[in-house]
Amino acid sequence: MPVDKAIPCGLILNELITNALKHAFPEGQRGSVRVELRKLGAVAMLLAVGDDGVGLRRDFDLASQSR
């Protein structure tokens, strides 16, 4: 991955992992965070971050969140 793509990717990755650790595992709850970077073709890559934390509240409404 060229450096002009790697730096923004690293910043996004840092934010996603930080948010997962902060919000997915309250009160010291244990869990795991999964990071996957996969080449999809000659010029495309997939970056996926997931966790097995508490998840979103049942009443969470993405449309009502400020942008």
Q: How are the SSEs placed, and which strands pair?
A:
Blueprint: H1 3-23, E1 33-39, E2 45-51
Antiparallel strand pairs: 1-2
SSE pattern, N- to C-terminal: HEE
| Terminus-to-terminus distance | 29 Å
The DSSP helix count reads 1
Gyration radius from CA atoms, angstroms:
15 Å
Gross morphology is extended
Share of β-strand residues: 15-25%
The side-by-side strand order for the widest beta sheet comes to 1-2
Q: How would you describe this structure to a colleague?
A:
- This protein is an alpha+beta fold.
- Helix content is 31%, strand content 21%.
- The chain is built from one helix and two strands.
- The protein has one helix at residues 3-23, and strands at residues 33-39, 45-51.
- Strands 1-2 form a two-stranded antiparallel sheet.
- A hairpin with a 5-residue loop joins strand 1 and strand 2 (45-51).
- The two termini are 29 Å apart.
Provide tags for this entry.
67 residues; alpha+beta; 2 strands; 21% strand; extended
Briefly, what is this?
It is built from one helix and two strands, in the order αββ. The chain is α+β, with helices and mostly antiparallel strands and about 70 residues long.
